[in-house]
Specification:
By secondary structure, the chain is of the alpha/beta class. It folds into two domains: 206 residues, Rossmann fold (3-Layer(aba) Sandwich); 59 residues, no CATH class. Helix content is 41%, strand content 18%. It contains ten helices and nine strands. Strands 3-2-1-4-5-6-7 form a seven-stranded parallel β-sheet, sandwiched between helices. A two-stranded parallel ribbon has the order 8-9. Strand 6, helix 9 and strand 7 form a beta-alpha-beta unit. Helix 7 runs antiparallel to helix 8. The longest helix is centred in the middle third of the chain and has 24 residues.
Length: 284
């Protein structure tokens, strides 16, 4: 029997069709090779329920909790009365908490869970008061509070105030998470250093960089692959942007590129084409 690990994600780590799912899925796939994984996650897209059996195959036990975005947004308003970041009640679930507590208690003697990996700061709330015997790793991925600061910059009036509040409360909470967990990780050195600069010296040793990996064999220039494609470079000179196209940062990036960079490209290469490839495209 392999050692046990608790793995918490804010979204089901499958299918690997967008940034966070790609990372969380590959972490799950790796963990499953070395641990019996107890996975707890939310499902916020009804079409993702079909993938639960696929995820089950990689885990010892799973807990899938439905998250309805509209209801969750109303729940998050509770935070305005408590001083919490709105992110926490958005992902708060009594079913998730009961399952986590039950797993940790039930497995204590027969198959003890001594390690936990949490993907996304919104899930840290479930282990903030866990036993010190549980080795907890927090994978922030990136600095969520900084995203809210950027949101606030682009808004005015009431939404500016709400986003600014979320930035401050979430930044404070991220520091609390770092203090409560054994290790905190970010994907890039830039984000790691930005977070470390906000911490007291006593917490600096806890912060690490956990870069996104790449399948170096599959993507090797020496790997065998078919050169057949519907868009051969020999016939078209093109640029591709790929990502979830309902995510504001991707929308902003594409709009900026088209307005600022693309006209210059076309001056030099008038036959160029620009493909925007991604799910749930924003009207822009």
């Amino acid at each position: 029997m392999k050692p046990a690990i608790l793995y918490l994600c804010h979204r089901i780590p499958y299918p690997p069709n967008k940034g966070d799912k790609i990372a969380s899925y590959h972490l799950l796939k790796y963990l499953s090779q070395h641990y019996d994984v107890y996975l707890g996650c939310f499902i916020d897209d009804p079409t993702d329920w079909q993938y639960c059996p696929t995820v089950d195959l990689l885990c010892r036990e799973t807990c899938f909790v439905a998250l309805h975005p509209t209801q969750a947004k109303f729940k998050s308003l509770r935070a305005l009365l408590s001083g919490q970041p709105m992110t926490l009640p958005y992902y708060a679930s009594s079913d998730m908490r009961k399952w986590i507590d039950r797993c940790l208690d039930r497995c204590r003697d027969s198959h003890p869970i001594r390690k936990a990996l949490v993907f996304s700061s919104s899930m840290a709330q479930y282990l903030m008061t866990a036993s010190p015997d549980l080795h907890k790793v927090m994978h922030f991925v990136d600095l969520d509070s900084e995203k809210w600061r950027q949101y606030a910059e682009k808004k005015s009036g009431l939404m500016h105030l709400i986003y600014q509040r979320e930035y401050h409360t979430l930044a404070r909470y991220e520091k609390q998470v770092c203090a409560a967990f054994d290790v905190s990780c970010f994907v890039t050195d830039t984000e790691k250093n930005a977070f470390t600069a906000q911490l007291p010296d006593s917490l600096h040793h806890k912060v690490r960089t956990l870069e996104n990996g790449i399948d170096s064999q599959y993507f090797s220039p020496d790997a065998s692959f078919s050169r057949e494609t519907d868009y051969p470079l020999a016939q078209e000179n093109y640029v591709v942007f790929t990502g979830a196209m309902d995510y504001w940062a991707n929308v902003d990036a594409v709009c900026w590129f088209v307005q600022t960079v693309w006209p210059i490209v076309l001056q030099h290469h008038p036959d160029c084409r620009f493909y925007i490839v991604g799910s749930s495209p924003h009207p822009k």
